[in-house]
Amino acid sequence: MRQAGRRLGGQAVRKAGLAAVLLTAYPPNRLTAQDPARISETQSVLTTLVETYGVSEAEGPVREAVKRLLPPWVKSETDTAGNFRVIRWSSSSHTSTRSASG
Question: Measured in Å, how far apart are the chain's first and last C-alpha atoms?
């Protein structure tokens, strides 16, 4: 009985060792979405938004922060109620509009 237990235990150790060698020898797969430049850009945008104070009825600082983060080719407008709209102009004269209540 003891020898049967030793043989099974030895096989388990050998298989675990083989698995460890194979797992460490295989190069890790990098996801393309994990590009360091994209992560850095996302962190910068999130840092700006998180650190900008804007509670209900006083969202102006957040609205201005978002405007500063937009690319230069984006047109934005704010109506009298404080609603912020972004209009993206395309080459085919078609517009796409996004709104956010302010």
Answer: 77
CA distance 36 to 33: 9
Two tokens at 52? 């900008």
Q: Report pLDDT digits (tens) over 12-56.
A: 777 777 777 666 666 666 666 677 888 888 999 999 999 999 888
Phi, psi of 60 (to 5 degrees): -50, -50
Return d(Cα 16, Cα 70) in angstroms, integer.
52
- For residue 84, the Cα-to-chain-centroid distance in whole angstroms is 23
Listed residue (62, 37, 38) closest to 51, CA to CA: 62
Q: Are 86 and 101 in contact (CB under 8 A)?
A: no
CB-facing half-sphere around the CA of 47: CA atoms within 13 A: 6
**Is the full-model pTM beyond 0.70?**
no
CB 67 within 8 A of CB 76: yes
